[in-house]
Design goal:
single chain; about 250 residues; alpha/beta; Nucleotidyltransferase, domain 5; 2 domains; elongated
Protein backbone atom coordinates (compact mmCIF):
# COMPACT_ATOMS: atom_id res chain seq x y z
CA UNK A 1 0.00 0.00 0.00
CA UNK A 2 2.85 2.42 0.64
CA UNK A 3 3.68 2.80 -3.04
CA UNK A 4 0.03 3.51 -3.85
CA UNK A 5 -0.35 6.54 -1.61
CA UNK A 6 -0.02 10.04 -3.02
CA UNK A 7 -0.80 11.80 0.25
CA UNK A 8 2.95 11.98 0.55
CA UNK A 9 2.78 14.86 -1.96
CA UNK A 10 2.17 18.49 -1.04
CA UNK A 11 -1.47 19.57 -1.39
CA UNK A 12 -2.67 16.01 -2.03
CA UNK A 13 -5.28 14.63 0.34
CA UNK A 14 -7.62 11.66 0.15
CA UNK A 15 -9.84 13.14 -2.58
CA UNK A 16 -6.97 14.10 -4.87
CA UNK A 17 -5.36 10.71 -4.25
CA UNK A 18 -8.57 8.98 -5.32
CA UNK A 19 -8.73 11.16 -8.43
CA UNK A 20 -5.23 9.97 -9.35
CA UNK A 21 -6.23 6.34 -8.89
CA UNK A 22 -9.35 6.82 -10.99
CA UNK A 23 -7.17 8.28 -13.73
CA UNK A 24 -5.12 5.07 -13.68
CA UNK A 25 -2.17 6.50 -11.78
CA UNK A 26 -1.91 3.77 -9.14
CA UNK A 27 1.75 3.77 -8.10
CA UNK A 28 4.65 6.13 -7.64
CA UNK A 29 6.20 4.74 -10.81
CA UNK A 30 2.99 5.49 -12.73
CA UNK A 31 3.15 9.08 -11.54
CA UNK A 32 6.82 9.68 -12.29
CA UNK A 33 6.75 7.98 -15.70
CA UNK A 34 3.69 9.91 -16.93
CA UNK A 35 4.39 12.90 -19.16
CA UNK A 36 1.37 14.68 -17.71
CA UNK A 37 -1.54 13.90 -15.41
CA UNK A 38 -4.94 15.45 -15.98
CA UNK A 39 -5.85 16.15 -12.38
CA UNK A 40 -2.38 17.49 -11.49
CA UNK A 41 -0.95 20.80 -12.63
CA UNK A 42 2.47 21.01 -14.24
CA UNK A 43 4.21 22.56 -11.24
CA UNK A 44 2.83 19.97 -8.84
CA UNK A 45 3.77 17.22 -11.26
CA UNK A 46 7.38 18.42 -11.28
CA UNK A 47 7.52 18.70 -7.51
CA UNK A 48 5.74 15.38 -7.18
CA UNK A 49 8.31 13.64 -9.37
CA UNK A 50 11.09 14.79 -7.05
CA UNK A 51 9.22 13.86 -3.87
CA UNK A 52 8.26 10.40 -5.12
CA UNK A 53 11.74 9.69 -6.41
CA UNK A 54 13.11 10.53 -2.97
CA UNK A 55 10.41 8.39 -1.31
CA UNK A 56 11.29 5.44 -3.55
CA UNK A 57 14.95 5.74 -2.60
CA UNK A 58 14.06 5.85 1.11
CA UNK A 59 11.80 2.81 0.72
CA UNK A 60 14.46 0.83 -1.12
CA UNK A 61 17.04 1.64 1.53
CA UNK A 62 14.68 0.83 4.40
CA UNK A 63 14.67 4.34 5.81
CA UNK A 64 11.26 3.96 7.39
CA UNK A 65 11.65 6.81 9.87
CA UNK A 66 12.38 9.40 7.15
CA UNK A 67 9.67 7.92 4.94
CA UNK A 68 7.21 8.15 7.82
CA UNK A 69 8.07 11.82 8.24
CA UNK A 70 6.83 12.40 4.70
CA UNK A 71 3.43 10.80 5.36
CA UNK A 72 0.47 12.09 7.37
CA UNK A 73 0.35 10.18 10.66
CA UNK A 74 -2.99 8.65 9.73
CA UNK A 75 -1.37 7.01 6.72
CA UNK A 76 1.52 5.32 8.55
CA UNK A 77 -0.47 2.08 8.45
CA UNK A 78 0.39 1.81 4.76
CA UNK A 79 4.00 1.05 5.72
CA UNK A 80 3.13 -1.97 7.83
CA UNK A 81 3.41 -4.83 5.36
CA UNK A 82 6.70 -3.54 3.93
CA UNK A 83 8.25 -3.11 7.37
CA UNK A 84 6.41 -5.86 9.28
CA UNK A 85 9.64 -7.69 10.15
CA UNK A 86 10.91 -4.52 11.82
CA UNK A 87 7.70 -3.73 13.70
CA UNK A 88 7.81 -3.32 17.47
CA UNK A 89 4.47 -4.18 19.08
CA UNK A 90 4.22 -2.19 22.29
CA UNK A 91 2.01 -2.10 25.39
CA UNK A 92 2.50 -0.74 28.89
CA UNK A 93 0.87 -0.96 32.31
CA UNK A 94 0.86 1.95 34.75
CA UNK A 95 -0.34 2.76 38.25
CA UNK A 96 -2.81 5.33 36.91
CA UNK A 97 -4.18 7.07 33.84
CA UNK A 98 -2.22 10.34 33.83
CA UNK A 99 0.79 10.96 31.61
CA UNK A 100 3.01 11.19 34.68
CA UNK A 101 1.82 7.82 35.98
CA UNK A 102 4.44 5.28 37.00
CA UNK A 103 5.17 2.77 34.23
CA UNK A 104 4.97 -0.61 35.94
CA UNK A 105 5.36 -3.15 33.12
CA UNK A 106 6.36 -2.79 29.44
CA UNK A 107 6.35 -5.47 26.79
CA UNK A 108 7.99 -5.06 23.39
CA UNK A 109 7.17 -7.88 20.97
CA UNK A 110 9.32 -8.31 17.86
CA UNK A 111 9.26 -10.93 15.10
CA UNK A 112 12.09 -12.83 16.78
CA UNK A 113 11.67 -12.11 20.49
CA UNK A 114 9.38 -10.76 23.20
CA UNK A 115 10.82 -8.69 26.05
CA UNK A 116 8.90 -7.79 29.21
CA UNK A 117 10.40 -5.26 31.60
CA UNK A 118 9.21 -4.54 35.13
CA UNK A 119 9.63 -1.46 37.31
CA UNK A 120 12.12 -2.07 40.12
CA UNK A 121 13.46 -5.23 38.48
CA UNK A 122 14.74 -4.63 34.96
CA UNK A 123 12.83 -1.67 33.50
CA UNK A 124 15.53 0.90 32.72
CA UNK A 125 16.05 3.35 29.86
CA UNK A 126 18.85 1.18 28.51
CA UNK A 127 16.81 -2.02 28.61
CA UNK A 128 13.87 -0.37 26.88
CA UNK A 129 16.15 1.12 24.22
CA UNK A 130 17.69 -2.30 23.64
CA UNK A 131 14.23 -3.89 23.23
CA UNK A 132 13.39 -1.29 20.58
CA UNK A 133 16.78 -1.35 18.86
CA UNK A 134 16.44 -1.69 15.09
CA UNK A 135 12.67 -1.23 15.08
CA UNK A 136 11.26 0.47 12.00
CA UNK A 137 7.80 1.26 13.29
CA UNK A 138 5.62 0.96 16.37
CA UNK A 139 2.34 -0.96 16.56
CA UNK A 140 0.02 -0.35 19.50
CA UNK A 141 -3.58 -0.02 20.58
CA UNK A 142 -4.11 3.62 21.56
CA UNK A 143 -0.39 3.98 22.05
CA UNK A 144 -0.20 7.28 20.20
CA UNK A 145 -2.49 8.81 22.84
CA UNK A 146 -1.28 7.01 25.97
CA UNK A 147 1.61 4.54 25.89
CA UNK A 148 4.08 6.61 23.89
CA UNK A 149 3.41 9.95 25.69
CA UNK A 150 3.73 8.19 29.07
CA UNK A 151 6.97 6.48 28.04
CA UNK A 152 8.36 9.75 26.72
CA UNK A 153 7.59 11.38 30.06
CA UNK A 154 9.22 8.56 32.04
CA UNK A 155 12.11 7.77 29.68
CA UNK A 156 12.91 10.93 27.69
CA UNK A 157 16.24 9.48 26.60
CA UNK A 158 14.59 6.58 24.73
CA UNK A 159 13.94 7.22 21.03
CA UNK A 160 10.27 6.62 20.24
CA UNK A 161 10.04 8.81 17.14
CA UNK A 162 9.01 6.08 14.71
CA UNK A 163 6.13 5.65 12.27
CA UNK A 164 3.17 4.41 14.31
CA UNK A 165 0.39 2.01 13.33
CA UNK A 166 -2.20 2.67 16.05
CA UNK A 167 -4.79 -0.10 15.89
CA UNK A 168 -7.36 1.79 17.94
CA UNK A 169 -7.93 4.25 15.11
CA UNK A 170 -7.19 1.84 12.25
CA UNK A 171 -9.75 -0.68 13.53
CA UNK A 172 -12.46 1.98 13.52
CA UNK A 173 -11.84 2.60 9.84
CA UNK A 174 -12.87 -0.99 9.11
CA UNK A 175 -15.92 -1.02 11.35
CA UNK A 176 -14.66 -2.25 14.74
CA UNK A 177 -15.67 -0.44 17.93
CA UNK A 178 -14.62 -0.68 21.52
CA UNK A 179 -11.40 -1.56 23.26
CA UNK A 180 -8.70 -4.14 22.76
CA UNK A 181 -10.40 -7.09 24.49
CA UNK A 182 -13.71 -6.76 22.57
CA UNK A 183 -11.67 -6.53 19.38
CA UNK A 184 -9.78 -9.70 20.28
CA UNK A 185 -13.07 -11.48 20.99
CA UNK A 186 -14.52 -10.38 17.66
CA UNK A 187 -11.44 -11.71 15.88
CA UNK A 188 -11.55 -15.00 17.76
CA UNK A 189 -8.37 -14.42 19.79
CA UNK A 190 -8.58 -16.32 23.08
CA UNK A 191 -6.76 -15.64 26.35
CA UNK A 192 -5.92 -18.07 29.12
CA UNK A 193 -8.41 -18.45 31.97
CA UNK A 194 -5.95 -16.91 34.41
CA UNK A 195 -6.05 -13.52 32.68
CA UNK A 196 -9.44 -13.72 31.00
CA UNK A 197 -11.07 -11.28 33.45
CA UNK A 198 -8.12 -8.94 33.92
CA UNK A 199 -8.60 -5.37 32.71
CA UNK A 200 -6.79 -2.08 33.16
CA UNK A 201 -8.24 -1.38 36.59
CA UNK A 202 -7.36 -4.84 37.83
CA UNK A 203 -3.85 -4.43 36.43
CA UNK A 204 -3.37 -1.46 38.76
CA UNK A 205 -4.63 -3.51 41.72
CA UNK A 206 -2.32 -6.39 40.84
CA UNK A 207 0.64 -4.03 40.82
CA UNK A 208 -0.31 -2.67 44.25
CA UNK A 209 -0.58 -6.24 45.58
CA UNK A 210 2.96 -6.88 44.39
CA UNK A 211 4.40 -3.63 45.78
CA UNK A 212 2.62 -3.71 49.14
CA UNK A 213 2.57 -7.42 49.86
CA UNK A 214 5.29 -8.93 47.67
CA UNK A 215 2.57 -11.04 46.03
CA UNK A 216 4.51 -12.84 43.30
CA UNK A 217 1.35 -14.45 41.90
CA UNK A 218 -0.13 -10.99 41.35
CA UNK A 219 2.99 -9.86 39.48
CA UNK A 220 2.98 -13.03 37.36
CA UNK A 221 -0.66 -12.47 36.37
CA UNK A 222 0.04 -8.82 35.58
CA UNK A 223 3.04 -9.82 33.45
CA UNK A 224 1.08 -12.46 31.57
CA UNK A 225 -1.74 -9.97 30.97
CA UNK A 226 0.63 -7.35 29.58
CA UNK A 227 2.42 -9.87 27.36
CA UNK A 228 -0.90 -11.08 25.94
CA UNK A 229 -1.96 -7.49 25.24
CA UNK A 230 1.26 -7.01 23.29
CA UNK A 231 1.73 -10.32 21.49
CA UNK A 232 -1.90 -10.34 20.30
CA UNK A 233 -1.29 -7.01 18.56
CA UNK A 234 0.60 -8.85 15.83
CA UNK A 235 -2.42 -10.92 14.80
CA UNK A 236 -4.71 -7.92 15.10
CA UNK A 237 -2.40 -5.74 13.01
CA UNK A 238 -2.23 -8.34 10.24
CA UNK A 239 -6.03 -8.61 10.17
CA UNK A 240 -6.75 -4.89 10.32
CA UNK A 241 -4.14 -4.12 7.66
CA UNK A 242 -5.59 -6.75 5.31
CA UNK A 243 -9.11 -5.39 5.82
CA UNK A 244 -7.95 -1.85 5.15
CA UNK A 245 -6.26 -2.99 1.95
CA UNK A 246 -9.43 -4.86 0.93
CA UNK A 247 -11.27 -1.55 1.10
CA UNK A 248 -9.21 -0.43 -1.90
CA UNK A 249 -9.62 -3.66 -3.85
CA UNK A 250 -11.62 -1.93 -6.58
CA UNK A 251 -8.42 -0.39 -7.88
CA UNK A 252 -7.07 -3.84 -8.85
CA UNK A 253 -3.76 -3.68 -7.09
Amino acid sequence: MIEHTFQILPSVGAKKEMALWEEGVLTWDDFVSADSIGCIGRSLKERGDAVLTQASELLDSGECRLLGDMLPRGEHWRMYRRFRDRAAYLDIETDGLSRDALVTVVTVHRHDRTVTLTEGIDLTPGALADALDGAGMLVSFNGSCFDVPVLRNSFPEVDLDLPHFDLRFASRKVGFRGGLKPLEAELGIARSEEIGDVDGAMAVRLWKQWVRNGDRDALDILTEYNRADTVNLETIADTIYDRMVTGYAGYRW
